[in-house]
Amino acid sequence: MYDWVLRMAHHRHALRSLAGVSFAESSFFPIPPDVMMVPMVLARRDQAYLIAGVCTAASVIGGIFGYAIGYFLTEFAHQVLEFFRHNAFEDFTRAYNEYGWAIILAKGLTPIPYKLVTIASGLSHYPLGLFIMLSVITRGARFFIIAALLKRYGAPVQAFIEKRLNLFAWGFLLLLIGGFAAIALL
């Protein structure tokens, strides 16, 4: 699948394919759209923001589909979690609705599969309008920052991003979790 996504980045229907990959990644597909977006922006730097916009819009729409998956699996998830621990689903829902904004914003920027957040948001019945707004902000920031850096600096930024993105994303996630832990202890 990874090789197919890379090949599609140079195809004449690359923008449509990117939209499809971005949509699918937000709900069920395992490969992030960055794999396709980066070579597309490098090949067409004058279209960097169009590419980022398509990627963002399709990702958010795919996120709504992921939200629907979670929403319609709520009863099933409730039964599964209750099997393991009484009130587990209620605890999850309460915590997610309290901290969901931070989870959505943080996750949208990291390489951790976004589909986990979209489905969890649906499971907890997180407010759909707020979910969409936060998704636009975080997914847009991720894709437009990458596009802007690639447009401005080209291939050296690609190497930097590919080499260190996971490290920075994990570091940010650890800081975020540490911040929540510190707040909880106060």
From TrEMBL:
Transmembrane regions: 49-73, 130-153, 165-185
Pfam family of the protein (one): VTT_dom
Sorted UniProt keywords: Membrane, Transmembrane, Transmembrane helix
Domain annotation VTT: ranges: 51-149
Highest taxon, organism lineage: Bacteria
PANTHER family linked: ALKALINE PHOSPHATASE LIKE PROTEIN, DEDA FAMILY PROTEIN
Record protein name field: YqaA family protein
Species for this entry: Sphingomonas canadensis
